[in-house]
Each structure stands twice: as structure tokens, then as C-alpha cells.
UniProtKB/TrEMBL annotation:
This is Lon proteolytic domain-containing protein. InterPro entries: Lon_proteolytic, Ribosomal_Su5_D2-typ_SF, Ribsml_uS5_D2-typ_fold_subgr. The keyword Signal applies. GO terms for molecular function: ATP-dependent peptidase activity; serine-type endopeptidase activity. The keyword Iron does not apply. Gene3D superfamilies: 3.30.230.10. It comes from Streptomyces cellostaticus.
Length: 263
């Protein structure tokens, strides 16, 4: 058949399957999620009308400044992300195209994912409470901490929860605030021993932090490179690996002396 066609006609006929393939690929769902900067919340204040941190069994102090945990928002696990969506968002600094498995556990439905994220959040809150009380040498039998943050899941608020508990109970240890009156944001997991762990979406979280007024951002040291990739102007990175290191860095910033580890 092709032998009876002119060369332009033959080229056009041969190109049809390629065009069809590209068209199909452009609209076919791909295993990616598109993420962007999400909400932030001051753990020293209220979220949706409810205090984020409530302490009983020990006196608390009035704080100034803010400690803002940060989030990202991603397309849902069942959302259709096409090749066109990937191209549209790939070069945007306020978006990130991420493998879906890096955002959501592979093979789980929405209810299972929500349950998994809620369990991670509860574990993070338990670890944050344990790490804070251990740092302050307080007994968990006497001091009770309740943490409540609506519509947020996962473990990445652990470090900020811990710092918030410490600030409410002890501040900088000498009458001042850990924040020094600043708006400080950050991210990072925490374990009961005070070790800070990496999270994800740091480059987007720095944008959320700056948008909401932060001038300092606490970031797990292992993620410094990612944090610097799209760092907003006016936001200073402070690298942390442990709870003690984070407290020392904030105290040094507050007092204007001492070592502040940077990325």
C-alpha cells in the first residue's frame, strides 16, 4: 500500500501511530503526584480554635513568637496525573513532581492511607512528648501533654511539637523564649531519644514558612541541599540533628551569641 503513495503521504501514514502514541501518553495517568506548599501552624497557639499543646501536672509559661510546623499538599493517591501535568509543573519552583510511592504507601487505598498517616502522627506526638519530658527531666507519670492538630498526618511535625512543649514548660531555661519573639518554622521527625530525622518536600516547606512570616527554618542536616534548592529570600536555614542541638541553636539566636549551625 505504501508503495502506491507519494512520499509525503507515506510519511503522514507512518507518523499516525507515533502521533496516536504520544497523544495517548499525554493523557494517560502516570505514577506521580504533584505537590505544592501547604499550610503551616503555630504549635504554641491554636489550630481551628483549639490549643495545639495542652499541659497538665506542671505550670506553663506565657510565650511570645511562633513555632510553625510546615506541610505540603499533594494530589490525591487516586488523582490522574498526565504527561501534560508533569511537563506543566516540572520547571515551576512552587511545585514538585514526585513519585506517588514517595508520597503515599504503594498499593493502599485512601482509607488505609489516612489510617497510616494518623498512626504516624500519633507516634510522632508520643515521641515528641517523651523527648521533651526527657530533655527537661520531668516524669511522664506526673506531667501530661495533649497534642492536637487537625487535618494533618504523618511524622514530620515531631521536632516542632517537641520544641513547643519545651518552650511552654521551660523556655530557654533562664526566663526567655526559645523563639526570641521571632517566627520560626521547621520540619523533622523526632524519636524519644531526641534524634531528628529527615522528612520530604523540604524545598516546598521553606516556601510555606516564608509565606507565613518565618525568618528562621530548622531543617534536618541531611536535607540541607534540598532546602537550599529553592530557598526564599529572607529565610535563614539552621541545620539540626538532635533536639539538644536545636535548642542550643535557638538559644544562641535568641541571645545573639554562640554557635548556630547552618546549611
Amino acid at each position: 500500500m505504501l508503495s502506491r503513495l507519494t512520499r509525503p503521504q507515506a510519511v503522514a501514514v507512518c507518523a499516525l501511530p507515533v502521533v496516536a502514541l504520544l497523544a495517548t501518553a499525554a493523557f494517560a495517568p502516570l505514577p506521580f503526584s504533584v505537590a505544592q506548599p501547604g499550610m503551616t501552624a503555630n504549635v504554641l497557639g491554636e489550630n481551628q480554635g483549639t490549643p495545639v499543646i495542652t499541659v497538665s501536672g506542671a505550670p506553663t509559661r506565657k510565650t511570645s513568637g511562633q513555632l510553625r510546623m510546615t506541610t505540603i499538599v499533594a494530589t490525591g493517591p487516586e488523582a490522574r496525573v498526565s504527561l501534560g501535568d508533569v511537563f506543566d509543573n516540572w520547571f515551576r519552583t512552587d511545585r514538585a513532581v514526585m513519585p506517588r510511592d514517595a508520597v503515599y504507601p504503594s498499593g493502599n487505598n485512601i482509607k488505609e492511607i489516612e489510617k497510616h498517616n494518623a498512626e504516624q502522627m500519633q507516634q510522632s506526638q508520643d515521641a515528641a512528648t517523651a523527648a521533651a519530658l526527657k530533655y527537661l527531666d520531668l516524669s511522664a507519670d506526673k506531667v501530661k501533654v495533649k497534642l492536637k492538630l487537625a487535618d494533618v498526618g504523618g511524622p514530620s511535625a515531631g521536632l516542632l511539637f517537641t520544641l513547643g512543649i519545651i518552650d511552654k514548660l521551660d523556655g530557654d531555661g533562664s526566663g526567655g523564649d526559645l523563639t526570641g519573639g521571632r517566627t520560626i518554622a521547621g520540619t523533622g521527625t523526632i524519636d524519644a531519644g531526641g534524634k531528628v530525622g529527615a522528612v520530604g518536600g523540604v524545598a516546598l516547606k521553606t516556601q510555606a514558612a516564608r509565606r507565613d512570616g518565618a525568618s528562621i527554618f530548622l531543617v534536618p542536616k541531611d536535607e540541607c541541599t534540598d532546602a537550599k534548592a529553592e530557598l526564599p529570600k529572607g529565610l535563614r536555614l539552621v541545620a539540626v540533628t538532635t533536639l539538644k542541638g536545636a535548642v542550643n541553636a535557638l538559644t544562641a539566636l535568641e541571645k545573639g551569641k554562640g554557635s548556630v549551625p547552618s546549611c
